[in-house]
Fold each of these.
Amino acid sequence: MPERLRIAVPLAAWCAMRIGEVLGLQRRDLDHLDDAARATLHVRRQFNVKAGRLTPPKVGSTRSVALPAFLLTDLRTHLDTHTGPEPEAAVLATRRGRVSQTALDNAWRVARTEAGLPRFRFHDLRHTGLTVYAQQGATLAELLHRGGHTDVTVALRYQHATAERDRALTTRLNKIVTDG
């Protein structure tokens, strides 16, 4: 990804953001970036391509999520280098203003092809992040919150049963039953 757009990838994946939410992110939506224990991202708006403007996110999708510590240095660097100082400054910006969805999509197509993943959609980053979050033991309620979902059936998509995870949980169960 071009440097000015690179931060969109980990935000989409590890903060479970939709493309419009990433494009709607403003400097004021990021709190406590100097404190990993309190670093928070607020999803308060999205760039709605159909409306051609910022709108509230999907119904029930307004949320605040913890930022992973590994993302903070890159996020601070991005803000210092590519985002205006105003609270309302778009996190993804060009000299002319907010980055368009077309520009982000075009950059993503090139990046995914170069990475050998020509069919990996930008939304797949969100799916991947929520799946990994579920594999860490997130409850259904936690998945609903992080993903900004209101429908349980949608959140259940991210709780994929894997043989590896099943084996790890069974090993934990065995340890509790035999050692406890």
Amino acid sequence: MQERSFHSRVRHIMPDLPTAERKLGELLRNFPGELASYSASELAQLAEVSNATVSRFVRRLGYASYEEARRHARDESASGSRLFLATGGKGVADDPKAYCEADIGNVRATVDGMVGGAKVETLAEALLGARKVWVIGFRAGAPLAQYLQWQLLQVVERSVALPGQGQTLGEHVAGIEAEDVVIIFGLRRRIARFDELVALVGKTGARVALITDQSMALRVDVAWHFRCMTESPGPLFSHTGVMALLNVIANRAIQMAGEAGRKRLIEIEAANDFLQEL
């Protein structure tokens, strides 16, 4: 049986807690990252309870010590849950400039990670020469995958964003061939079987491009791996760096498409005019 998460343990014991422990439990239910950030004494002061209450609460959760509970909470925060980055104390960024500065930093760091544009260049070339381009994204990656596919559609006619509504991935993975390019978004929090998905796609022989955040170590088992910065002073990840990368990829593909790409763009504009859609 899978080990119960720290947050799940807190939720599970909440109905049976005495008053003082309930006060602590409510704090950690709403801001579980506090346990990973503070010592037992600091947490007791923040929750306005005694040190003994913290000790009893930790044992009730099933941990042998406060440090064991703290390690579990810290490990869980590394999985990407933004709930663990929210805080009930002071220090939450409330200045819009802080977010702007973080976004600018994310864009710069992400662009610097493109290694002079060489990886983008080879990916754009592969996209234009592929039999079919598949763009796969889940959760935060889903709208980003749809956006990239929409932009690539200007010059890459045979492209599709997955998963579609009511569809399973298996229905599409079975159709991936060695002449294809598959772009997979792996932004936190990733789906549980993400590694299995990448491995399954890799077995088709198709070239794989991963677009992830900085939490994933560089993978050498794929053709391209772009690691984007997603830091934020608030409780949500910032995806401005990811959007900057997608902007570069789509624009470079359109530029490299040359005359054939321009011909398709002209045909698209003619169809738009005829249908009066825009």
